[in-house]
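Project standup — Tuesday

K.O.: blocked on the structure for the chain from last sprint. Re-posting the sequence here as requested.
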Amino acid sequence: MFLFYLIFFTFIAVAPAYCYIDPGTGSMLFSVLIGFVSIFFFAVKTAWIKIKTLPIWYKKDGESISSAAKEVVIYSEGKQYWNVFRPVLEEFDRRKIPVTFYTSDENDLCFDFESEFVTKSFIGKGNKAYATLNLLEADIVLMTTPGLDVYQLKRSKMVKHYSHILHSPVDTTLYRLFSFDYFDSVMLTGDYQAESIRFLEKNRDLPEKQLIGCGCTYLDVLKEKLETLPAKEQGNSRTVLVSPSWGENGLLKKYGINLLKPLAQSGHKVIVRPHPQSSIVEKNMLETLQKQLSDYSNVEWDFERENIRSMSRSDVMISDFSGIIFDYMFLFERPVFYTSYDFDKRAYDASDVPTEPWMFVKLKELGIRLEEKDFENIGSVVEKCAADSSLKEKIIQAKNIAWINQGKAGSKCVDALLEIKEKLTSKQ
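H.V.: unblocked you, prediction finished:
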């Protein structure tokens, strides 16, 4: 209210002037006046937001966020990325090297990770988190968040090096435009990912960033968890995992009951695991499908945070263009069906690269295309492919390319970060 009165009496409540101003000039002066008022208002509002979102206000379990300079900071958007960062934090802890972990999730699993060398803090979500990160002072920041210096997340002038860690063994061109352009380094899951990044650097006249082949921390964690799961059930029927992407080209949206009902009638066990985003934006569709299949006892729905249990129980997977296809192939070396899809490259880095994304090339080589005409005989189609191991060798070859340093990605990532830090120190 104070701000309103200040603006009113400063700019609006003026004494009458006995002079003539023509309509054109008056209109121009009024526009200038409104412009100054708007600039003043938004400047004050922006300053107030920055004060409210300073790092000192956010804490978790009594841990305040210090504004002091840090050596290595890791930022996570939420607990869905815990499997990406866990091996890295474990390696810092094992080497007894301090590291700061920031998260935008109050329920992040990092808070269950006990270590005297890992400082963990909740920094808020959205703009609150960006306000903290944009004013950060650190030697190195590691994150899975793409689009640095493109959207709200800006490079802090007090951060010396930004590094992106890839969390999936797929082509980097399937990220949104300019996702990696302004990072100083990228931790790759496989060396093949470097080719498209180098092409874009030349095409966009960007300086070369460090490209470091570390491996896939996320898959390393899932591979460990496999050892703790019970053995797969044996029986006469097959178990089919339906695990698609979401949106108009997602399998459930595009085919829905036309695919799921024949599957349910086939006698095979069916696990339907929708993409997490479907539960948010396609909730009505999922509820309709669940109701339509409620009479089939061989159909179950999986909405758990992790997908490893459903994957381990199944013999085959049916998907579309979801990245989970390669998780499944690489962890279990089992067959995957994929349905037809239309991919609009215009919003992605793939639109600026002349070659087809690696993921789509390999999907055609390693996957089995499922046509709509096959739906009515889906039971026999699944049985035939589940018993066919001819693609296994090709899957293993692709895995060794896309998932290097298997089981060692966390260690390789920390090695790279410490080497970067040493070079930064030597330049001072």
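K.O.: great, moving the ticket to review. The mean pLDDT is 87. DSSP finds 16 helices and 15 strands in the chain.
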